[in-house]
Design goal:
93% of the residues lie in helices and 0% in strands. The chain is built from four helices and no strands. The protein starts with a helix and ends with a helix. The chain crosses the membrane at residues 12-36.
């Protein structure tokens, strides 16, 4: 249960980092191109370009906020479910006999010794995905600037 919850948390963090890097690099690329185009077009069109860039930034921020809110709600829901199941499990354990508690504790400790390698693997995978996403967003932004300048 804990491993699944950690994987959900790692996925959410990686997704938010990917989205944030995409928005930052794409927004910067669009602004640079728009600013460079301002020097080439008449004043009225430059005003429209600035309005377009502002609208683009606003929509990107709304999207990021929406994704962050969805991730927070999902995380809160998962935590609530985990707490509810933990409370139910705790109630069940307190009503059981002492011998059963010792046996379950021993088996749980054995299971817990297997979790850390999986957690480390999931965390390293998340970091690799974030780094790859940031690099790809950077390359896309630079490519966009070079194509449009």
């Amino acid at each position: 249960m804990a491993l699944v919850l950690l994987q959900v948390v790692f996925w959410a963090i990686a997704s938010l980092a990917s989205l944030a890097s995409f928005v930052v690099f794409r927004g910067a690329a669009l602004l640079i191109v728009a600013l460079l185009q301002l020097f080439k077009i008449p004043r009225r069109a430059s005003y429209d370009a600035v309005e377009f860039a502002g609208g683009l930034i606003r929509s990107a921020l709304e999207r990021v906020t929406e994704h962050a809110w969805d991730a927070a709600v999902s995380l809160a829901s998962s935590l609530f479910e985990a707490l509810a199941s933990a409370a139910a499990g705790s109630l069940q354990l307190t009503t059981s006999a002492v011998a059963e508690l010792v046996e379950k504790t021993r088996s749980k400790l054995e299971e817990m010794s297997e979790v850390p390698p999986q957690v480390l693997e999931a965390a390293s995978e998340m970091v690799a995905k974030i780094a790859d996403s940031v690099w790809n967003s950077y390359k896309d932004a630079v490519g966009y600037i070079m194509d449009n300048v």
